[in-house]
C-alpha cells in the first residue's frame, strides 16, 4: 500500500516533534503493510512551510530511516491550504507536488463551510497544469450534509482522498457515513492515513478491514496512489459486485 497523506516530518507542523517520533510512525506504517509514504506537511498561515525546508527534512528522514533499517520509500509533498494558492508562486507549488509529481497538489479541504470560490480556484490550478487531490472532504459538515456537492469538482478532474480513520469510524459516525456515501457515488479515489502521531489514527489496513471489496480496497490504497507516483493515468475503478460494500456498525 502507498500512503499519500502523512504528517511524518519532525518539528514542522502538528505532526511529530522529534525524529525519533517520526521513525516510530514510519516503522508502524511498514508493519501495517505500507511500502511508501508521501510526507505532506501543512502549508498554511499557522504552518508557513517552504519547499526548501520540506525537501531538507525529507532528505534527513530518508537517511535516518535507512540507518534504522526501516524499508519505506519517503517521498516529498505538502498539504496546501486553499488560501495559500493565490499567494504562492507556481514554481514553489510544484516543489510540493504530491509524491514528487509536480502535476498533483494535495489541497486541504476546510472542515467548516463550503469555500465560495472553490470551483474557480481549482479551475485556476488546472490552467496552471495542476490536478487537485482534495484531502478528507468527508470531514466537512457541508459535504456530510450533501456528498453529491463534490460531483461537479470530480467531473472537472479533481480527485478525492478519504481518511482511513473516517472509514473505520474512529472519527465519528458522520465522517464514516459521508466517506462510504462518497464511495457509493464513485466520488472518492484514494484513502490515506493523514497520520500525525503513533497510534493516533487508523492506518490503511483499516480500509481492507472495513470494505468488503478487495479489488476496490486495492484500487484506493495502491493502484491510484501508484498512478500518481508513476505519473500514469489513473486506472479505472473496478466494478463493485454490491452497491453497499461495508460492514455496518
Walk me through this protein's architecture.
This protein is of the alpha/beta class and 249 residues long. It has one domain (2-230): Alpha-Beta Barrel (TIM Barrel), CATH 3.20.20.140. Helices cover 39% and strands 15% of the residues. The chain has 10 helices and 10 strands. The chain has helices at residues 19-31, 51-67, 90-95, 118-127, 141-145, 151-155, 164-168, 173-184, 205-210, 214-230, and strands spanning 2-6, 36-39, 42-44, 47-48, 73-75, 79-81, 104-108, 131-135, 159-163, 190-192. A 7-stranded mixed β-sheet has the order 4-3-6-7-8-9-10. Strand 3 (42-44) and strand 4 form a beta hairpin. The protein is globular and about 45 Å long. The chain starts with a strand and ends in a 19-residue tail after the last helix.
Count of helix runs: 10
Main sheet strand line-up:
4-3-6-7-8-9-10
CATH second-level architecture: Alpha-Beta Barrel
CATH class assignment: Alpha Beta
Instruction: Give unreliable regions as ranges.
Output: none
Overall 3D shape? globular
How much of the polypeptide forms β-strand, as a percent range?
A: 15-25%
Whole-number average pLDDT?
94
The helix fraction, in percent, is: 25-40%
**Head-to-tail CA distance between termini:** 25 Å
